[in-house]
Amino acid sequence: MDDLPLVEKLVTRLAQASKVPVSCKIRVFPKLEDTLAYARMVERSGCYLLAVHGRTREQKDNSRTRADWDQIRAVKQG
């Protein structure tokens, strides 16, 4: 996973310093648990709107790979 403490610190500081709501965009991880943990951390840090890209980094340039709508749904249900 990414450097979670750094991402958490950046989103927190941005949310505290900004006069407008902060939005973030993430990609799903191969494991649903990792995606949910990441989404919760970003939300807890002050993210007001979260966009979830349904493909992993490894699937980034593969337009034939379908988005993982189950992971997106799980993040939404939260």
UniProtKB/TrEMBL annotation:
This is DUS-like FMN-binding domain-containing protein. Keywords: NAD, NADP. Residues 59-78 are annotated as: Disordered. The keyword Signal does not apply. Residues 3-77 form the DUS-like FMN-binding domain. It comes from the Eukaryota. Gene3D superfamilies: Aldolase class I. One of its GO terms (molecular function) is tRNA dihydrouridine synthase activity. InterPro entries: Aldolase_TIM (IPR013785), DUS-like_FMN-bd (IPR035587).
